[in-house]
Specification:
Chains A, B: Keywords: DNA-binding, Transcription, Transcription regulation. Two copies of one chain form a homodimer. By secondary structure, chain A is of the alpha+beta class. Helix content of chain A is 50%, strand content 12%. Chain A has six helices and three strands. A three-stranded antiparallel sheet of chain A has the order 1-3-2. In chain A, a hairpin with a 2-residue loop joins strand 2 and strand 3. The longest helix of chain A is centred in the C-terminal third of the chain and has 14 residues. Chains A and B meet through helix 1, helix 2, helix 5 and helix 6 of A and helix 1, helix 2, helix 5 and helix 6 of B. The first copy, chain A, binds a DNA duplex (30 and 30 nucleotides) through helix 4.
Chain lengths: 116, 116
Amino acid sequence: MNYQKYVQMLKAMADPNRLKIIDLLSCGSLCACDILEHFDFSQPTLSHHMKVLQTADIVAARKEGKWQHYTLRAEFIATFKQDTARLLASDQRCVCHTNACQECVSGKAVITNEET
Amino acid sequence: MNYQKYVQMLKAMADPNRLKIIDLLSCGSLCACDILEHFDFSQPTLSHHMKVLQTADIVAARKEGKWQHYTLRAEFIATFKQDTARLLASDQRCVCHTNACQECVSGKAVITNEET
DNA sequence: TTATAATATAGATCTCTATCTATGTAAGCG
DNA sequence: CGCTTACATAGATAGAGATCTATATTATAA
């Protein structure tokens, strides 16, 4: 689990406007001008948000003529779901990834699964 | 899907220290002093982070003598997983929740599932 | 080539937030 | 009671980030 990458994704998602952009893109690819229609902020602000989403590897861009088409990355969807599942694993096994958990070290946590 | 609540959870999680706290708590309940041992920041800073996590309904606190015991809320785990799954639904159906998606309105998105 | 349309970049500003020190509160102990 | 321990609150500060206006870039069309 790539802690840093997961935090970067969370940060990129933790803005209502960017979350809405991700939601819009879950319908399929859109160009910048189409996305912009759904918001009140300016075009440079959208450009900024799209850059944040690209830097976090959430969104991919491909240029076609004058237009920039944005798409949700399949790898982001898979990675984010997987990391979330691991962080919030609901089985009894301690899944702390910090390597600093006293519970894990002391064995107080219920570890029921010996594989891996 | 409660958009605002989901954003609040994402914001609370989108800090490396708070994410580590969540990870530590996935091993089971811990008191503030135990959590603090895993970090370099001051006690008031931890107090601040715990408040953010409580306000987002990620963590529950119960006082026992001098100690504050913190636990991950089961409802948070369920809600966050569910909202994430809905946002990033991998089927072909458009799952945009913004009520503003032109793709959805125009029917360009592939809607394969007619149940609700 | 000139004009227009789509997008990016630069720089400024204002708000939010993570952190600190200092202090307050509350519980247990001698 | 006074002391210590565990935690919260208040207030200040420094850095990050969301937004804007102005301008640059790139592509197409007339």
